[in-house]
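Q: What would this chain look like folded?
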Amino acid sequence: MKIALLICLTLLAVVSTTCSETTRPNILFIMSDDHASQAVGAYGGILAPLNPTPVIDQLAREGMLMENVLAQNSICTPSRASIMTGQSSAVNGATDLDKDISLEQQYLAKEMRKAGYQTAVIGKWHLKEKPETFDYYKVLVGQGHYSDPVFLETGATETVIRPSSSAWEKNTFGPNIVFENAVQMEGHSTDCVTDSALDWFKHKRNKEKPFFLKLHYKAPHASFKSAARYNKYLNDIEIPEPESLFKRGKHGSIATRGHDDELLPFLGASISPRCKPRNYLGLAKDLLKSNPSASFEEITSYAYQKYLTRYLRCVKGIDDNIQRVLDYLEAEGLDENTVVIYTSDQGMYLGEHDYIDKRWGYEEGMRMPFIVRYPKTIPAGSRSDAIVENIDFPAMLLDYAGVETPDYMHGRSFRPILETGKEPSGWKQAAYYHYWMHLKHHFIPAHIGIRTKDYKLLFFYGCAENASEAHTPPAWELYDMKRDPQEMNNLYDNPEYKDIIQTLKVELKELRQRYGEDNPKYNCNQVINAFWDYDVQDRALAIEISHAFRDEMQTKYSK
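A: My prediction, written as structure tokens:
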């Protein structure tokens, strides 16, 4: 009798364990690169009538769309590092594109594996160290190529030699790039990433375990090369222009415009010919051939149409490929028990304020699209304006895996918000921002900031991470996000907002302390502290710095 009882209890334990493994949700985390929320139809905006993302929009109708998901550092490597670690850039060390996280710091994958999930990452990784903490990986090398991409893959032993395709590659690697332990696929990157994911599902997935798949697309990152089948997409469509493409208003400050606008030609890569160091004038070369005397406005509009057409073709490729993955989940009966997430590593400027790329702490760069579908617990068609940061992603993912948030993570799970639409007690009311890469690549000054539902306060301190003096003029900017969501009117010098500014500065200091951003090992904090009060002397010095930087740039770009 005792033996029979023991056998029954053992069988019950086995069944219980098996049930828990099969009932815990699978997790599919889809992330594109530089997909702006304003280029997702479900978010509305001027591009929505073009219907750029019908598949992603359907996900939103079947789940929750989050309106205030924000990157703490709007650039590829730092954002991806925060999603893997749940930590700020200052703590995980990935403050810019040249940094990375160690194998030890690939926390999310390690925690998921400990929870009993089969883990995989396929597509763009961009964190240098191989993702060997995943059960399976097949990732693009660095940025990866749009055509015939090379992947580093678990167990691969081949050596792939690829001719250098850009001046940077030729200068860095010589005429050829040699990839060890790699495989090369034929076709467009977006298709190849999806093919690889479907292959993993069909031939490598362990059906006895729940899965956690990070599916990362390179698109729509510049240089916006889409598959040939999209060459005619939007060909005859006039794409709407954002008002701020030409209207600057009171957007910005001496930090971004210079004293009396003297730095407008040198700061912030532009669509128009405005920014001499980097702009999209090359996109208007056909126009200039036929009309050499074309006006500034004509050149800008022409370049904008080219920019958006190429960008949206890449977005279309992602949307179509996501449909392939969703169709597979449905065909295999996996859709009901899979948390499907769609996001991007940060936002992107599509001509707003005449800017391209990301990096700026303004809304278009800071805000990430974030849509989640899980039929079992997330109400269809729901929305939330809760403040969520990318450091919160791993806590939420681990929550669905039944794992408590580790103490070393800064983030907090927002699963209750996804499932109820309500913010739990003590939920954060502000997000932090820090762009560290002073003037690199797109000539954007380093800055920090705080974003609440009502306001955004930015401080451009204007120096590199290890510099102790300002290189570009420091200045503060305040925007009323309710009355001025396009951030066209800097209110920092408006006396009516004096108390609000002081309150936000106190909160900003608290966030910097909480996230380890005030660490004295970063010399830039000397400049931040020196200009914090921004008194009369600070403003006078900012003007001097503006003049000096203007002279430096005029000399450099006088030819």
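The two ends are 96 Å apart (CA to CA).
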